[in-house]
């Protein structure tokens, strides 16, 4: 089971994904890095940017530019099977909003959201949920659990 993720310089999403124990691939942070191309079904894990946009209308782009660029590659987009998003509950109704946007645009289920770098319970809940639903999501379950 492949997890594709984007993590900013804070590394919150990176740490969360690492705790899941599944094979993963990181969407590059900088344009100068080699673009990521995937060749198998994956779950996308993405942070939400611009909290509070629904109220302030100052930043209406919750999906990081790097993720948009990755998903604009038709091949990459063809392999997405589900989305997970992080955010901050201080964002109010925009908490995890990137997941809503990606799920709607890519026609995939939004399966989980977690705050900041997640809790041990978030890691366990998502891990078990993905393993239990791998077949339904069209994902290859790992032969051995990490």
Automatic annotation (TrEMBL):
SUPFAM superfamilies: Flavoproteins (SSF52218)
Classification via InterPro entries: Flavoprotein-like_sf, RNR_Ib_NrdI_bac, RNR_NrdI
Origin superkingdom: Bacteria
Signal peptide limits: none
GO molecular function: FMN binding
Function: Probably involved in ribonucleotide reductase function.
Family membership: Belongs to the NrdI family.
PANTHER family: PROTEIN NRDI
Protein's name according to its UniProt entry: Protein NrdI
The species this protein was found in: Corynebacterium lowii
Gene that encodes it: nrdI_2
């Amino acid at each position: 089971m492949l997890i594709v993720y984007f993590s900013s310089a804070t590394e919150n999403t990176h740490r969360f994904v690492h705790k899941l124990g599944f094979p993963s691939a990181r969407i590059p942070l900088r344009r100068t890095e080699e673009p990521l191309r995937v060749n198998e079904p994956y779950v996308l894990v993405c942070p939400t940017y611009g909290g509070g946009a629904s109220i302030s209308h100052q930043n209406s782009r919750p999906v990081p530019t790097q993720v948009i660029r990755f998903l604009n590659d038709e091949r990459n987009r063809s392999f997405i099977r589900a989305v997970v998003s992080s955010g901050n509950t201080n964002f109010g109704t925009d908490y995890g909003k990137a997941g809503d946007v990606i799920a709607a645009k890519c026609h995939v289920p939004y399966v989980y959201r977690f705050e900041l770098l997640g809790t041990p319970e978030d890691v366990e809940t998502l891990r078990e949920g993905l393993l239990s639903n791998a077949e339904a999501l069209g994902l290859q379950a790992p032969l051995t659990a990490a």
